[in-house]
Amino acid sequence: MNDIPSELKFTRSHEWLKQLPDGIAEIGISDHAQHALGDLVFVELPEIGRSLSAGENCAVVESVKAASDIYSPVAGTVVAVNDQLRHTPELINRDPYGGGWLLRLRPQEPGSQSSLMSASEYGALAAQG
Amino acid sequence: MVDFGGWDMPVAYGSQIEEHHAVRRGAGVFDVSHMGIVDLRGARSRELLRELLANDVARLNLPGRALYSCMLNERGGVIDDLIVYYLDDDFFRIVVNAGTREKDLAWIGQQAARFEVTLLERRDLAMLAIQGPQARERSAALLAAEAAWAVLELQPFFGAQIGEWFVARTGYTGEDGFEIMLPTADAVSVWQRLNAAGVRSCGLGARDTLRLEAGMNLYGNDMTEQTNPLESGLAWTVAFDPPERNFVGRAALDAIRARGAEHKLVGLVLDERAVLRSHQRVLIPSVGEGEVTSGTFSPTLERSIGLARVPVATGAAVQVEVRGRQLPARVVRVPFVRHGKALISLV
Predict the structure, then answer these.
(1) Superfamily for B2-212?
(2) B297: which chain A residues are within 8 Å (Cβ-Cβ)?
(3) Yes or no: is domain B262-347 CATH 3.40.50.12710?
(4) pLDDT score at A129
(5) d(CA A104, CA B92)
(6) What is the pLDDT along chain B (347 residues), one digit of tens a residue?
(7) With a cut of 0.90, is the ipTM above it?
(8) Looking at the complex, does the CB of residue A64 fall below 8 Å from at least one CB of chain B?
(9) C or N terminus of chain A, fewer CB within 10 Å?
(10) DSSP secondary structure letter of residue B13
């Protein structure tokens, strides 16, 4: 839990958002979440072009233990999904903040991620279990 | 860590799937000290067990031989499933589930008095299961030459007391291996020596995926006091011969046999990218409905497998309701995997 990248923003439901240079937002799940889920075996990703509202169910990650819905941290349009996860879902376990990203959005409103938690706020939440 | 029958147990030490593969390809060790070990002593122990168990301990003709059996109530419902070892004419050992330990002891104790049999729960013993194609040789390597020779001579489903250890060639994974009952004080050092010998620590998660691939039932999921062995894939464990052996639950099972069981337990394979979970609804067109009793992702088959209780008329294909969708599943004969090999066709 010590090395949460400080540039990420987080939701209470354990998704992270990374602001990419071209205004695109990358979405994934936290290290805490992948650890709680255990080995991931299937990932369902949204269609490119789908428009999502904030908090909308946009993907499913399923581990040996349980299936878990993923909620979009902000409103926006899906511009890319991580196709590698279809065959190697374990990337989420191995590299949750890097190669295990789920999807990329073009946010509806710039700056809409400002309501999300900072890395240190999320770290404190995750530490409570 | 999760609570399991009052014990704090790890789901996995690291990656559950890697632990699973270690047991299919090499060797893994499980701490199964939560299981209840109970010694029965008395000249009439065999008589007691012939009444108490649905399988017949008269089949235990050689010291050390083990038998898998259900213990039933009068309605034929399953109180527990257990392994019984015949150690001597006045000495049997049984191994029961953690969650049912107390009710089992109360039930057996009630019957035991009539047969002047005493029960002793062996809370002084820990239990380690070492499983996998390399499990036996790596376990034997921890022992002195003479003891090593003795454990390697053990036939499947036999156990032997070797010094302070009781070693049995049994398990719950579909692989070869041992279950070792040993003084609790020795367990940690034995575990560490096994790790040093390349035997991987495995948690409850891998134990569940391994047993399900091996087509083995889990008490509380696949059978309970509300279901009987005949509709739980366990008819093979009920000894109806000799007909005069009047074990507890026999009258109920005879009646079910006479009119025909309504349900059966079957294996399911899901070729879609989704996972079967217990309590999902199974739909069988023009037959009726059933329920998934155990389901998981099979690391060996790289798809989901499960057990389901369905009407007896169910054929080769069913639909399962998975997270709001109806997905086709194949009905297959279990086990799904044995000794590292897939036993079902992969399409």
Answers:
(1) Probable tRNA modification gtpase trme; domain 1 (3.30.1360.120)
(2) 41-42, 62, 64
(3) no
(4) 67
(5) 63
(6) 888 888 999 999 999 999 999 999 999 999 999 999 999 999 999 999 999 999 999 999 999 999 999 999 999 999 999 999 999 999 999 999 999 999 999 999 999 999 999 999 999 999 999 999 999 999 999 999 999 999 999 999 999 999 999 999 999 999 999 999 999 999 999 999 999 999 999 999 999 999 999 999 999 999 999 999 999 999 999 999 999 999 999 999 999 999 999 999 999 999 999 999 999 999 999 999 999 999 999 999 999 999 999 999 999 999 999 999 999 999 999 999 999 999 998 87
(7) no
(8) yes
(9) C
(10) S
| Residue A1 Cα, gap to closest chain B Cα (Å) | 16
Task: Give the Cα separation of B298 and B304 in Å (integer).
Answer: 6
Q: Decide if pLDDT at A1 tops 90.
A: no
- How many A×B Cβ pairs under 8 Å? 36
Cα–Cα distance for residue pair A76/B226, rounded to 1 Å = 51
Q: Is the pTM of this model over 0.90?
A: yes
Domains of chain A: 9-108 (2.40.50.100)
Interchain CB distance below 8 Å, A64 and B297: yes
Q: Which helix (H) or strand (E) holds B49?
A: helix B45-52
| Token pair for B138 | 């790596």
Backbone phi, psi, residue B88, to 5°: -160, 170
Binning pLDDT at 50, 70 and 90, where does residue A128 land? confident
User: Which pairs count as long-range contacts for B4-9, CB under 8 Å and 24+ apart, including other chains?
Assistant: B4/B34, B4/B98, B4/B99, B4/B204, B5/B34, B5/B97, B5/B98, B5/B99, B5/B101, B6/B34, B6/B98, B7/B33, B7/B34, B7/B98, B9/B34, B9/B203, B9/B204
Domain boundaries, chain B: 2-212, 262-347
Distance (Å, whole) CA B153 – CA B38: 25
Closest CA in chain A for residue B19 = A39
Instruction: Give, in degrees to the nearest 5, the angle at Cα B198 between B196 and B199.
Output: 100
| Contact: B275, A38; criterion CB under 8 Å | no
CB spacing of A64 vs B296 below 8 angstroms: yes
B12, B274, B275 member nearest A38 (Cβ): B12
A19: exposed, middle or buried (Cβ count in 10 Å: 0-12, 13-18, 19+): middle
